[in-house]
Inverse folding.
């Protein structure tokens, strides 16, 4: 298949590059933000060879092309002036709910390959140990286990980077906020006690490895804080003062409030599903099915 030809046809049928505010892709879909939806020819696109389907969701015009989406995206960005960095000033904003889900999905999209690869590696290790091919006490197992576990354990760091990027904040400060929750000096406090204090304010200690909610809350607040700080701090001082103040403010707020709240929300969802599963499989299926889109994102 000619990805170049397919790319040109897709851009033409969504209304041309002048109708595209931004474009990103996930594992199987090209996710367009269009200035004028009426200019897109959805029916023709759906019948285009190489396009599996077209979905309009979350304020996005999504063209499903399958596992070769990265190749098609690459050709589109070569031949048309579109992409994630395109000017979004005149794109429709959509509802608050749609915008929230868009932020969540775009934060996870760059990580899908790493998450899928690591998950499959963990599954392979399980099979190898169950069949006796590989000992769970061997060095080989521990090295491969580290490779499979890393992206999940350090998920707060990766999400800090991708979420801050989506929100227009410094991605490496976002990653630093996530990393602070996993830093050895902080995690070592868990071994000694269940709580500590920060300038006299009680801090409930929790394990933030593999967590999602705490970093989403903290980095979202950081993005707002960064914009505020840039308005009040002189440009010559912003390079070091804005990151310093952001980290010094957000990390303590996270471990004092955002983190425990986020962890408790995640635990509550898990506990609720466990409780329902012990009472009724049918009810569990209905509830989980109804919330599947939300649960899949998290």
């Amino acid at each position: 298949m000619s990805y170049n030809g397919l790319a040109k046809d897709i851009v033409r049928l969504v209304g041309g590059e002048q109708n595209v505010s931004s474009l990103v892709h996930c594992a199987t879909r090209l996710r367009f933000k269009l200035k004028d939806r009426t200019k897109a020819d959805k029916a023709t696109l759906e019948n285009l060879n190489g396009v599996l389907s077209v979905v309009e969701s979350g304020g996005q015009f999504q063209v499903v092309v399958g596992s070769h989406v990265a190749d098609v995206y690459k050709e589109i960005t070569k031949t048309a002036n579109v992409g994630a960095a395109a000017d979004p000033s005149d794109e429709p904003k959509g509802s608050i709910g749609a915008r929230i889900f868009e932020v969540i999905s775009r934060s996870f999209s760059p990580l899908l390959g790493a998450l899928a690869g690591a998950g499959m590696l963990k599954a392979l290790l399980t099979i190898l140990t169950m069949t006796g091919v590989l000992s769970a006490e061997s060095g080989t197992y521990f090295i491969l286990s580290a490779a499979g576990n890393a992206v999940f354990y350090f998920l707060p760091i990766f999400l800090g980077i991708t979420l801050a990027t989506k929100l227009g904040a410094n991605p490496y400060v976002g990653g630093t906020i996530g990393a602070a929750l996993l830093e050895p000096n902080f995690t070592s406090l868990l071994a000694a006690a269940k709580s500590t204090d920060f300038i006299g304010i009680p801090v409930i200690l929790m394990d933030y490895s593999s967590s999602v909610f705490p970093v989403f809350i903290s980095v979202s607040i950081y993005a707002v804080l960064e914009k505020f700080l840039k308005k009040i701090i002189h440009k010559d001082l912003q390079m070091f003062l804005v990151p310093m103040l952001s980290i010094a403010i957000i990390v303590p707020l996270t471990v004092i409030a955002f983190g425990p709240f986020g962890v408790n929300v995640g635990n509550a969802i898990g506990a609720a599903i466990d409780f329902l599963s012990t009472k009724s499989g049918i009810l569990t299926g209905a509830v989980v099915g109804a919330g599947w889109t939300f649960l899949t994102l998290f």
User: Anything to note?
Assistant: DSSP finds 13 helices and six strands in the chain. The first helix runs from residue 3 to 13. The radius of gyration is 22 Å. The CA atoms of residues 3 and 72 lie 5 Å apart.
